[in-house]
Amino acid sequence: CRLSANPIGRIVLMLHGVRDEEAFRASDRICTALQIANHLQDVGADYRRGRIYLPQEELRSFGVPENALGGQRIGSGFRALMVFQIRRVRSIFAEGMSLLENADGRLGLELRAICRGGMAALETIERADFDVLTRSPRLSGVDKASCFLSIFLPASRLMKRIEKKSSESADRKYCSWLVRQSRSNFYLAFLVMPPKRRRGLNAVYGFCRMIDDIVDSPGEEKEKHRLLGAWKESLEGLSGKAHIHPIMRELAWAASAFGDFSGHLREVCEGVEMDLDRLRFHAFDDLRLYCEKVASAVGLASLPVFGIALSQAEAFARNTGLALQLTNILRDLGADAKEGRMYLPLEDLDRFGVKEEEIRHGAPTGEMMALLRFEAERARAFYREAERSLPDGKKWPLFPPRLMAMIYRRLLEKIETDSFPVWGERPRLSVWSKLREVARCLLGI
Length: 445
Description:
Layout: H1 6-15, H2 21-41, H3 43-48, H4 56-61, H5 76-95, H6 97-102, H7 105-127, H8 141-149, H9 155-159, H10 164-181, H11 185-190, H12 195-216, H13 221-234, H14 246-258, H15 262-276, H16 284-306, H17 310-331, H18 333-338, H19 346-352, H20 356-361, H21 366-388, H22 399-417, H23 431-443
């Protein structure tokens, strides 16, 4: 940008009789922002030409391989990378706005129109839902008219398009999108929360969703370990860092607003790392430790966001997490077995005379059904214990985990009633069944 764009801006200023070094520096910032905005629009087209303008270290930091730039899928990592890039370009624009404030006459008119065009380019990317891989978003007729009309407006009006709250809004929208696109029951449970608490919950769950996706996505285990390590490291001194990822910025905001919960999120990272090693669990105590890390720790991290002290609801969060994760294990038993994962304790398999190969091949036997009913009853026991440990007077603040427990408990009942159909299509509840549980949960308040 220093060599290809900035000199053009300086030449324009000189043609208008401007020789001020401070004006040159402000022009450099504007020209750099314009150049990067153009590159962001053309990521996919440039890749097909053999060009990559996105910095390599940032592709690596966001877990985006180069070949993903030639794909059709806008993944969560690439979307987060684009949110970061757009945020940075807006900040670069802001550093050059002094030039617009001091320029008058025809030069001032031209600069306002040019800057408005660059900002509109960023907005086209956001409107296209960050799809710059399959096509290059371009200005609409309305955008062009807005650029023309901006010549009659003061520079302060343009500043509103690049101020800090615009970037914070993009971070919030990213976390909300990540939770929503996961199609998780968590999103349904979050909808009734006040906006500020919902924002915090989206940040916590978005973090957990992101690191879980690292394990489930294609790629080398070494790289997955590196990425998980980087996420875990970013939790150190959460509120005192300048983070580049929108999830981490939202987490830092949530920690400042509700209290530090980074220790529980580190536990989630440790639990997810266990999945990479394809470990077997010899006894239930081993499995319980895993479940507490990947599930109970999520609930414990959420308690400050709910406005509940750990001392009041620790038992409730731990029992709920265990119940939900055991239900997940039974729901995904067949799919996990085909991937080489076995979460049921080996001592339970031995006790009921069931071999791993039988589960992997999906040939249900009487012994296997007895094993699965035993595991289902174990999950139900944790649901009952969660109900008993629900703190008095906290039904409404804990509505999301209560609703999750009710939905998953109903799912567990469906799985067992249908004789554990876990080797075919993933067992699910209908939308009406979930809405019925929402109503029951609300009436129980």
